[in-house]
Amino acid sequence: MVGRPFPPGVSGNPKGRPKRALFDDSLKDILNEKNALKARACADALVQKALGGDVQALRLVAERVNGKPPSAEQVQQAQQVNQTQPASREAQRAKLLELLRSPELRSLLAEAYGKSETERVQ
After folding, report:
1. 77-105 pLDDT per residue, tens
2. What's the predicted TM-score (pTM) here?
């Protein structure tokens, strides 16, 4: 057969690329040996690089110890969630009392309901 070994639209590799590279598997095998001296040596070398001013090593150590910092988008989403969550009952009551004491609201109530209703609010 000359030309394409597969008809158009059919992949020659239907399962796709393997999920892990050979290097990753080999690295895990080496680090998973019974004694963890090699893993400890790698961690020590990474920390020494970070202490020496290697920014990438410092970032990797910080992410491994503290976790990745949230992205700006994640921070914004968290802020939006906090703003939409209802306040506690005490906070709602305090806000309502603050609004009821405002002169602007009192004058609006006086216009809408008459003087006797606003006297009850006080």
Report:
1. 888 776 666 667 788 788 878 877 788 77
2. 0.40
Q: If DSSP codes are grouped into helix, strand and coil, which group holds residue 46?
A: helix
**pLDDT band at residue 49 under the 50/70/90 scheme:** very high
C-alpha–C-alpha distance, residues 23 and 90, integer Å: 58
Contact 57, 46 (CB under 8 A): yes
Q: Which residue has the tokens 């990474």?
A: 46
Which pair of structure tokens corresponds to residue 97? 């009392």
Query: How many CB atoms neighbour CB 39 within 10 A?
Result: 13
Whole-angstrom distance, CA of residue 105 vs CA of residue 108: 5
Helix 37-51 vs helix 22-31: crossing angle, to nearest 10? 110
The one-letter amino acid at 63: E
